[in-house]
Amino acid sequence: MKHSHISLLALCVFLLIIFLCAQARHHSRHSKHWHSHSHKSSEISTPPASAPSSSTPPYVDDPSPRPSYNASGFFDVRTFGAVGDGISDDTKAFKMAWDTACQSDLPQNVIRVPSGFSFMIQSTIFTGPCQGRIVFKVDGSVMPPDGPDSWPKNNSRRQWLVFYRIDGMSLEGVGLIDGRGQKWWDLPCKPHKGPYGSTLPGPCDSPIAIRFFMSSNLTVRGLRIKDSPQFHFRFDGCKHVQVESIYITAAALSPNTDGIHIENTNDVKIYDSVISNGDDCVSIGSGSYDVDIRNITCGPGHGISIGSLGSHNSKACVSNIAVRDSVIKMTANGVRIKTWQGGSGSVSGVSFSNIHMDRVRNPIIIDQFYCLTKECTNQTSAVFVSNIVYTNIKGTYDIRTPPMHFACSDSVPCTNLTLSDVELLPSEGDMVLDPYCWNAYGNLQTLTIPPMSCLLEGIPQSAQGSEIGHCYVQ
């Protein structure tokens, strides 16, 4: 009996030992599982204990995970060291703000250029692609070095601010982008401000103020930009572009200061803006199609132009362009198509409608003999111009030249020009009764003022059933 009690006690001790071992193994498994989660969570970056000072770079270039310095996606350029006194070089701070916002994994990041400050930055390329959409919000002033003598020798003299390979960006705000162009305009190589203009030899490159290159889904909204050394905006190789509610201004005699130039760019909307400068308000270059321009006030300047196209015997293709509901005042030209002799390709599917002209020298013009010197010779090849519609074009013109001017190639005539509701009266003096036509074919849907009897009817034999100037839209 005593022996059985001892055996029972031994069995109980044995079972207790097994239970304790099982608990230890269970605890061990759970401890390993907990540590695994703990290690995984440590890979997530956490905000720093304090914000970086204005003199401290926001990150260092190492492969370890970077902390997020602004969980809300707002990046003020002053946080990265920008001074904003109009004298200090703020280029590095702007680049740091861009790089940090560009690498943020938030869906939208805002780079803030605050009001009340003037930031001077050098020629710079802001490069993508970025993780999320970028809003570059300019509420203060931004400017380049003042003139060619202040421009660093190792910096490009052809462009100032470049946005390259960006998909999804808005450049907006209520601030001012000041190109400080006067000293560039006064270079000896630029046309002097005399009655005939003259130039002298010497360096002539001048920077485009803002250039978007190989980018998409772009918006420019609300800004003021003035006095660019050359073009104010240029879009090269871009798609899905919207420009709205901007104000561009430069001196009436400032050379090559086009407001907006597009090249090899498609799906463009330019709305509700004022452009006053020394060259074309909007110029449309080769490779551009699906462009809608609406509610633009243009002038002084050279008007709204397609071209110039076909220079140096090149092929140019432009199609599906609409210019509508706009005012063009005190300009050298109104709506213009200009091409060089010797080019090829085509301009087609263009409509100009509901446009008011105010004291415009050449309200309606096609010039296929465009040339900047007296040395251009007539050539057989030309850019083919066809299917151009002018509707409800009214206002006043300068009597020094005819209000309608269609100068088409000798060998490649313009075809399918259509005019309706065109009423153009002299701003002063007697009416010019003879609009100019040369090898231009089309029709009048209504009578025009002044009367236009020089258009040829039908389609010329040289253009029937041919592939002349044919362009394929990609």
UniProtKB/TrEMBL annotation:
Superkingdom of the organism of origin: Eukaryota
GO biological process, one term: cell wall organization
Cross-referenced PROSITE patterns: POLYGALACTURONASE
InterPro entries: Glyco_hydro_28, PbH1, Pectin_lyas_fold, Pectin_lyase_fold/virulence
Keyword terms, alphabetized: Cell wall, Cell wall biogenesis/degradation, Glycosidase, Hydrolase, Secreted, Signal
Active site: H302
Low complexity composition bias: residue spans: 45-58
Region (Disordered): 32-64
Molecular-function GO terms, alphabetical: polygalacturonase activity
Secreted found in the keyword field: yes
Chief localisation class: secreted
Compartment list: Secreted, Cell wall
Span of the signal peptide: 1-24
Family (UniProt): Belongs to the glycosyl hydrolase 28 family.
Protein name: Polygalacturonase
Species this chain originates from: Acacia crassicarpa
